[in-house]
């Protein structure tokens, strides 16, 4: 491609793409902006290579952190944990009614016993689920990290 002067807007867009790391090669970037790869290289050479390297490292770290967060958010254990937390929050609100003398006075002994039994059962199941999750987490850690010594 013969040399063709690029305008300031195109130059700014190319520099922005270089900073953002949107393209893997100068050829891809040149095709995108309809210019020569040499133009891309010339603009790249005007930028601080340490800054470009730093931005690339930070972008890589952010991408990795984002993938890990996405995996965590979308994993079954995380969804179960979120469900357990929501269940516990709901059970806690219901249980707080027991402290209200007026509300408690309106309930029969059988209803209060039923509420107590339900809350106890929920608490036991949540604790058991947490213990199972901790055991699985410990087993997974043992498989990942071989014993030393």
Determine Rg (CA atoms, Å). 30 Å
Number of DSSP helical runs: 7
Indicate the proportion of strand residues: under 5%
Helix content: over 70%
Provide the low-confidence segments as ranges. Answer: none
Order of helices and strands: HHHHHHH
Describe the model.
By secondary structure, this protein is mainly alpha-helical. 79% of the residues lie in helices and 0% in strands. The protein contains 7 helices and no strands. Helix 5 runs antiparallel to helix 7.
Short description:
The protein has 149 residues and is mainly alpha-helical. Helix content is 79%, strand content 0%. The chain is built from seven helices and no strands.
Would you spell out the secondary-structure blueprint of this structure?
Elements: H1 8-20, H2 26-33, H3 37-45, H4 49-74, H5 76-96, H6 101-105, H7 109-144
Helix pairs in contact: 2-3, 5-7
Question: What would the keywords be for this entry?
Answer:
single chain, mainly alpha, 79% helix, elongated
């Amino acid at each position: 491609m013969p040399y063709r002067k690029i305008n300031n807007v195109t130059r700014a867009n190319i520099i922005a793409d270089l900073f953002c790391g949107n393209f893997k090669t100068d050829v891809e970037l040149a095709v995108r902006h309809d210019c020569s790869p040499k133009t891309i290289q010339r603009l790249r050479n005007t930028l601080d290579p340490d800054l470009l390297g730093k931005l690339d490292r930070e972008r890589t770290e952010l991408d990795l952190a984002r993938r890990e967060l996405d995996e965590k958010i979308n994993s079954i254990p995380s969804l179960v944990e979120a469900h357990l937390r929501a269940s516990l929050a709901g059970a806690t609100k219901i249980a707080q009614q027991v402290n209200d003398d007026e509300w408690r006075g309106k309930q029969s002994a059988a209803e209060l016993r039923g509420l107590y039994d339900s809350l106890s059962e929920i608490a036991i199941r949540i604790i058991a689920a947490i213990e199972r999750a901790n055991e699985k987490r410990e087993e997974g850690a043992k498989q990942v990290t071989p014993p030393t010594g």
